[in-house]
Amino acid sequence: MRQKMTLDQIKTMFEQSGKVAVVGGGLMGHGIAQIFALAGYEVGLSDISSEVLEQVGPKVRTNLEQMAGYGLVDPDAIPGALRRIHTTTDMPQAVEGAGLVFEAVVENLELKQKIFSELDALCPDGTILATNTSVISITEIASTSQNRGRIVGTHFWNPPFLVPLVEVIPGADTNPYVVEACMDILARVGKRPVRVKKDVPGFLGNRLQHALWREAISIVENGIADAAEVDEAIKYGFGIRLAVLGPMENADLVGLDLTCAIHEYVLKHLEASKEPSPILKEKEAKGELGFKSGKGFQDWPIERQQEVRQRLVDHLLKWHVANPKA
Ligand SMILES: NC(=O)c1ccc[n+]([C@@H]2O[C@H](COP(=O)([O-])OP(=O)(O)OC[C@H]3O[C@@H](n4cnc5c(N)ncnc54)[C@H](O)[C@@H]3O)[C@@H](O)[C@H]2O)c1
To answer: Which pTM value belongs to this model?
Structure first.
């Protein structure tokens, strides 16, 4: 059983395999495949949709060429990275010989449980099985598998090849060495893994992010500011600082006495609802879904959507240029 394997054994088995597999080749899956292919690993990538798989090569090429345009990737390394990604609709073929398998299918507990049960039966004991779930409990995803010690959460952020963070989350039965090995493997392919000690809904990043979104939506709902003004306040205010000064550092910087005084006064006025806000539910019911319907909290004509997407990619690429060792 994997529970009995040592950290060195787990790491050695991974390195000897020289291969990762990714199950689900959509938005996240193709990006995770790209990270490992660029780092020199063979990658087996499976999806139920052959149309999705046909898009993987062109998408990875575009991503890598954009990075090369900023000097972040050697253009000569692109053909090799593309050659190392092997797509197939046959999951057993994709995972064969892989030392680490990332699951990145749609966010559905039953589907993920089914895939992990299959992977658990297919893959030898030495293979680490990781889920990219955004919020679902790792323990629940692993609950229908036998060898739960090798199942772990590795939560990448979109786009995974440009956002360094990967949250690494153990389920109730995960072997701590599997967590250690993932931290090590992810760091070696250039990611910034962060250990989450408890398998709680939303893990770490999404709990923080959605606490902020809940307050932002509540501010709009209560007429305190318009949606665009809320975003301006963050983009031109504390959002700039956040990239270099986290809230825990910042609390220490301003002083915990001041932080305590602010919380004494303001916390009771902040949004604490346990449900999605009425305005969010109302917009969803009206089909005002944001970019995909052209209207959400704001109007989104196609040109404006493209401008926002490009602005994000340019920002992330420039961030990497400015932070070459990150
Ligand atoms: N989109 C994000 O910003 C983001 C960020 C972090 C984590 N995630 C998580 O990553 C996972 C994937 O999200 P995504 O945005 O890439 O979704 P996506 O819809 O772009 O891709 C999911 C892919 O899974 C495939 N699929 C469905 N059933 C399958 C099966 N049985 N076998 C193989 N492939 C199958 C689909 O064909 C699709 O291509 C989800 O768990 C999601 O919550 C998403």
So the answer is: 0.95
